[in-house]
Amino acid sequence: MIRVLVVDDQELMRVGFRMVLGAQDDIEVAGEAGNGAEAVRLAGELRPDVVLMDVRMPVLDGVEATRRIVTEGTSKVLVMTTFDLDEYVYSALQSGASGFLLKDTPPDHLVSALRSVAVGDAVVSPAVTRRLLDRFLGSGRVPPRDASVLDVLTEREREVLTLIAKGLSNTEIAATLFLSEATVKTHVGRILAKLDLRDRVQAVVLAYETGLARPGAG
């Protein structure tokens, strides 16, 4: 059973999420919060598998709440936003969110995304993620990361990370590098472990920040 904490300052939104999620046999709404501070407290108490987090809230916003929850290691966080290129979303990804979805995401996509986050998979569209990174990393407002953090990777792992950053799935990476999917999965696991990353979303962000992938590149 996947336990979810729903966080949104609008009660109607929380009711809607609860109805959608409550109808699933494998998902349980463990609790609800109306602001970020309450979300951090409940995440610590309830230790849900996934926190469905709004970004714009009173008392404590979703970005800072995400950072605190991820730092404490209590739960994974899936951010919900009204705007796919909201500057808060990039901050949320930097803070450790496992991805983001738009609030008008169809119910079946929301459910699928929560299931993916629960098992550590990426849930955001590669195209949306890249557009977000193109905007903020290309603006010069985000300081670059020292590329030496990638020195722990083998040449093959760097190739795989580059393709992850381009939005390729394991199947597509396997076809591109003439490897088996199992081998690619092993490489991805090692990349995440060596770089201390939670998921592919974090890997994409790091690839851009270190210059391994560049805004606007194909």
UniProtKB/TrEMBL annotation:
MF GO annotations: DNA binding
Keywords recorded for this protein, A-Z: DNA-binding, Phosphoprotein, Transcription, Transcription regulation
Domain of life: Bacteria
GO biological process terms held by the UniProt record: phosphorelay signal transduction system; regulation of DNA-templated transcription
PROSITE patterns tied to this protein: HTH_LUXR_1, HTH_LUXR_2, RESPONSE_REGULATORY
Modified residues (4-aspartylphosphate): D54
Pfam families reported for this sequence: GerE, Response_reg
Domain Response regulatory residue range list: 3-118
InterPro entries membership: CheY-like_superfamily, NreC/VraR/RcsB-like_REC, Sig_transdc_resp-reg_C-effctor, Sig_transdc_resp-reg_receiver, Tscrpt_reg_LuxR_C, WalR-like
Residues annotated as domain HTH luxR-type: 146-211
Name the record gives this protein: DNA-binding response regulator
